[in-house]
Amino acid sequence: MRVILVRHSKAAHGPWADADRPLTPAGEALAADVAAGLAKLEPDVTRVVTSPAVRARDTGEILAQAWDIAKVTVDDDLAIGGNLERAVARLLAGKPGSSVVAVGHAPDLAVLTSMILGAPVSVRFECGGAACIEVEPQSGEGGELEWAMGPEAIAALGES
Predict the structure, then answer these.
(1) What is the model's pLDDT at position 140?
(2) Which of 28, 78, 82, 91 is the most buried if burial means most Cβ atoms within 10 Å?
(3) For the chain, what are the domain ranges?
């Protein structure tokens, strides 16, 4: 299966609690551009899971549209400081050959990447950036990092 980890798009700063920060208009546009690129790069996504934070949920909803996914799943363990071991277990519970997108936060996404790979790695997630890991959960072995890109590179794929 393929796990695509995506950092939420650009969020507003202001009077909101951190978990309630919405995407900026530029963040909404970036998420739409990233969605178009991801859909070309990873056409077989069947599930989108997000942190409960507004900026992550909004990013997930925009991404889900690219694959005509009607329902985005919110996973409290993808919240900042959530239980990443439980989040990984749920992400890897998909069908063999399936692809799932998980929208979360830095630095947790880098930790998730290492956990899924089964080895420490350093992957930097910009807002809208993503990484894809191929993994066979039944094997008990770590996954393989297929690609990691910033948002501009992903968006450019949608333009071709």
Answers:
(1) 66
(2) 78
(3) 2-159
Written as six digits, the tokens of 89 are: 């277990």
- Architecture of the structural domain at 2-159: 3-Layer(aba) Sandwich (3.40)
Q: Judge contact between 104 and 110, C-beta under 8 A.
A: no
Rounded Cα gap, residues 139 and 16, in angstroms: 44
What is the enclosing helix (H) or strand (E) of 32?
Answer: helix 25-41
User: Tens of pLDDT along 34-49?
Assistant: 999 999 999 999 999 9
Segment 95-153, tens digit of pLDDT: 888 999 999 999 999 999 999 999 999 899 999 999 999 998 776 678 999 999 999 99
Q: What is the DSSP string of 57-73?
A: HHHHHHHHHHTT---PE
